[in-house]
Amino acid sequence: MSQASFATYLIGLREGLEATLVVSILVAFLVKSDRRRVLPMVWLGAGVAVLLSVGFGALLTFTQASVSGRNQELFEAVTSVAAVCFVTWMIFWMRGAARRMGGELRAGLGQALALGPAAVAAFSFLAVVREGLETALLFFTAARGAATATPLVAITLGVLTAIGMGYLLYATAVRINLGTFFRWTGALLVLVAGGILKYGVHDFQEAGVLPGLGTLAFDVTATVDPGSWYATLLTGMVNLTPRATVLEMAAWAAYVVPTMILFLRPAGSRPAAPPADAAATAPAQA
């Protein structure tokens, strides 16, 4: 699996499941409270959020195609840094918010119901659009430069996998430890973000903003075929390429090492996470 396909599949899976859980919590709340008539407004808000996210991705692609030379390198570098900031905030936010997400969404939807159907659609839109915009930005930065449609297929499969998991959690007796899922996918996303930052630094170097483009940390392309299966696997799993500058690797290590330590550190005195069954069935509770 190529780096782009692995990264984009993971992005689609992680972000897709978050969005699916949000929608399923809202739907379950309305079903349990016998307010099915408002369900179309939830789907309307979620649908508009998806369309806006697709449009945002198209805008990024169009902007990239509209600039050239140094400006293109700068645009790609800035979007890479923005994507790293978003994914870092998202994995740490989800680490603590997963415990209270269901209650907060139900409380917010209850307030929206008191204001009317339009407020319900707006609440659904706001609850989903964050995930959608993050997905579009992360997909753009992880898949840019791909010569085939493989990354698009990969993120689509990731989203479809997430929808399937969300449906099984909502409608069947299947139980998934969501805390463990978000922990492991979050750790993998730290590696993906480190790779995106590494490419961003390279773009800044090519644009002349940062020095050291010719100062290599290593270059094993003479002995390691970049297209070989093992090089592709290494690149896909840890975002390391057979050739990298000193500054690229310094940025990669400076981000990945402390971020991974902070993300995986013990919970300490924080309240204990709910049991796996409770976490998995949260969307189905009113």
TrEMBL record:
Species, as recorded: Pilimelia terevasa
Subcellular location: Membrane
Membrane topology label: Multi-pass membrane protein
Principal subcellular localisation of the protein: membrane
Species classification: Bacteria, Bacillati, Actinomycetota, Actinomycetes, Micromonosporales
Protein family membership: Belongs to the oxidase-dependent Fe transporter (OFeT) (TC 9.A.10.1) family.
Coiled-coil stretches: none
Protein name: Iron transporter
A GO cellular component entry from the record: high-affinity iron permease complex
Record key words, sorted: Membrane, Transmembrane, Transmembrane helix
Domain of life: Bacteria
Stretches that traverse the bilayer: 6-30, 42-62, 74-93, 105-129, 149-169, 181-201, 244-264
Molecular function GO labels: ferrous iron transmembrane transporter activity
